[in-house]
Amino acid sequence: MPHTPETNSAPEASHYSHPAIVLHWLVAVAMVANVALILSVEHIPEDWIRPAIDTHKSLGITVLGLALLRLLWRIGHRPPPLPSAYPRWETVSAHAVHGLLYVVIFWMPLSGWLHDSAWSEAATHPMQLFGTIGWPRIGLIENLPPSTKEPLHDLFGALHRWGGYVLYGLVFLHIAGALKHQFFDREAVLRRMWFSRR
Ligand code: HEM
User: Fold this and answer.
1) Per-block mean pLDDT, blocks of 10 residues, the chain (198 long)
2) What's the predicted TM-score (pTM) here?
3) 2 part of a folded domain
4) Pocket residues: Cβ below 6 A from ligand 1
5) C-alpha 166, offset from chain centre
6) Which of 10, 44, 71, 109 is deepest in the core (most CB within 10 A)?
7) Domain count, the chain
């Protein structure tokens, strides 16, 4: 089937591979859902708080697995180059935001896991992924004496929270950039990250 450009600019026929697209959207949806879930904790009935936090942990660990798959796929498969029409500052900023998003995609689950492993009640509240399979705490942290664990719990909690703020900023820049190219510059960039018949 001929490739029909949807905009008035030169067609950029390059697309991400299907596994990269699936992993991109799975990670995106899971992270947004996980943030929404944890922010909802202040507004839900008392009885739901513990299950909500447990689900947050399970979804976060799932993101860690997906992020690992994504990174491995990315190492073996170069993404399509950014459209050649981009000025240099936009190419550099897009690469910087993508690189930082990779860091945050790993940082959020890892800092959450570290924070949870330093929790004083970790031993009496074993972690189970979605209430089924047991998931370990990080032994190196969990086995520290309480006097060392307590400040670490606060530190990792703060790093997790600040990671969230960085995530919000990066997601904003990422979406704003994509929308600018799609609708303002009229380059069909969104379909690079969607399925196409090739
Ligand atoms: C997709 C990955 C994750 C994202 C985007 C994420 C995001 C967040 C955010 C935004 C908060 C609220 C921070 C605040 O403002 O106070 C939070 C809290 C928290 N997260 Fe995560 N998180 C992720 C993964 C994890 C994982 C894997 C764990 C543990 C295994 C975890 C454990 C926690 C805990 C215990 C809290 C504090 C909950 C509370 O007591 O209110 N998170 N997370």
Assistant:
1) 38 78 98 98 97 98 98 95 90 97 98 98 96 97 97 98 98 96 88 84
2) 0.91
3) no
4) 31, 34-35, 38, 41, 53, 56-57, 60-61, 63, 108-109, 112-113, 115-116, 160-161, 164
5) 11
6) 109
7) 1
Give the whole-angstrom CA distance, residue 117 versus residue 174: 31
User: What's the pLDDT score for residue 74?
Assistant: 96
CATH of the domain at 120: 1.20.950
Q: How far is CA 165 from CA 19, 34, 108, 171, 178, in A?
A: 28, 14, 11, 10, 20
Q: Whose CA is nearest to atom 32 of ligand 1?
A: 112
Report yes or no: 112 and 60 within 8 Å, Cβ to Cβ.
yes
